[in-house]
Write a structure and sequence with these properties.
single chain; 380 residues; alpha+beta; 9-stranded mixed β-sheet; 14 helices
Length: 380
């Protein structure tokens, strides 16, 4: 503690340089922490669905090809299947094209069994089964458009040349996607006049252990048919969408590391300049009895304080920005799930510590071990 005032005095000696160094480190670690947080989107989504007993059954030719309505009865008769729900993509917009968000039509009677982990209230489920125009809306979409339960809204079709008028009867929660809107498939089929359009069948098995067997049985039933199926666990199905972001996530991590290395070099240059300016002072302190180890410790402490201050500022800024982005940009799709996990905070502060330590250690050691007489003569 007796050397704390000396460290503080040196930190405030050149306030402009100290402030600019803190800001530069903060900006670089803001970028680093934000970029490194991106892969947590996939990790979080997959973790939420890893233990699910839900199975996605779609056309083997691709998601744009429909499956026959008759498949539902045969899938329901498969051993270990407890619920089957048809789903069709609507793709409507609320007001403008920029107001797009995921909206799907589903079979209402199977919803309670399929979505038992979505925290949908029983009254909402009851209304969804009774009211033909009922809709369940995710909290992200509710907040984005300032919607409320009981409100009537209209979605303009983009895939189908129709509009649907819906009444919000409840909200989703739990592990449900926060930005989805769900309404009844029978209402959609009636509106477009084409019954039996099913994009995906969602199937629930009676246990996680039964999922592989159910997948094999379903695909075997429809092998060599005009509409062969490809069944996947929910985690695998969602993971295939996350794969589209993998290259982007990897690039983000690489860029984050490059940014940290770049600012590390800048910080090292700044620390070296600061030490060079204090060569005479260091020599005088040596002559007064300060040991080289103590001098190195004091200079490294200054650098660590600057780096950690920048790291904390950068982390706090990234946390706030990501929180605002995730809550205010539901249209961003999966990216709206970005959060800064504790591990990223630890990695960022560790990076800040390394910047502070390595940038000052070498020049401080060189200056502290320099011959006292020679150092005084050079600055005289």
């Amino acid at each position: 503690m007796k050397y704390a005032m000396l460290v503080l005095k040196n930190l405030t000696r050149n306030k402009r340089r100290t402030s600019l160094t803190v800001i530069s480190i903060a900006v670089s670690l803001f970028v680093f922490s934000a970029l490194v947080s991106l892969p947590t989107v996939a990790d979080q989504v997959l973790a939420d669905s890893a233990s699910s007993t839900r199975i996605a059954v779609h056309n083997k030719a691709g998601l744009t090809y429909a499956l026959p309505e008759a498949y539902r009865t045969r899938i329901a008769a498969t051993p270990h299947v407890v619920a089957v729900m048809g789903e069709s993509w609507f793709g409507g917009i609320y007001h403008e094209v920029t107001d797009a968000f995921p909206n799907l039509a589903v079979d209402p009677e199977a919803a309670p069994q399929l979505w038992s982990d979505w925290n949908i209230s029983k009254p909402a489920f009851d209304q969804f089964e009774k009211l033909r125009t009922a809709a369940l809306v995710g909290p992200g979409t509710m907040k984005r458009f300032n919607l409320h339960i009981g409100q009537q809204i209209m979605l303009r079709g983009t895939i189908y040349p129709i509009n649907v008028t819906l009444k919000i009867v409840g909200t989703t929660g739990g592990k449900a996607p926060p930005n989805f809107l769900l309404f009844r498939r029978d209402y959609l089929e009636e509106a477009i006049g084409r019954p039996g359009i099913v994009s995906i069948y969602w199937v629930r098995a009676d246990s996680s252990a039964a999922v592989p067997g159910v997948i094999a049985n379903i695909d075997q039933q429809f092998a060599n048919s005009s509409a062969e199926t490809q069944s996947e666990s929910e985690a695998s199905f969602i993971g295939s969408f996350m794969d589209n972001y993998r290259a982007f996530f990897t690039m983000a991590e690489v860029l984050g590391i490059i940014v940290v290395l770049s600012i590390g070099l800048v910080a090292a240059n700044t620390a070296a300049m600061s030490v060079r300016e204090r060569r005479a002072e260091i020599a005088v302190m040596r002559s007064m009895g300060f040991t080289p180890r103590l001098l190195v410790t004091l200079m490294v402490a200054e650098s660590l304080i600057i780096a950690l201050a920048g790291g904390l500022l950068g982390c706090a800024s990234a946390y706030i920005v990501l929180k605002v982005f995730s809550s205010g940009s539901p249209a961003a799709g999966p990216l709206s799930a970005i959060r800064m996990p504790p591990v990223v905070l630890g990695e960022t502060l560790a990076a800040a510590s390394l910047i502070g330590l390595l940038s000052a250690l070498i020049p401080a050691q060189a200056a502290a071990r320099r011959n006292i007489v020679e150092a005084l003569r050079m600055v005289a």
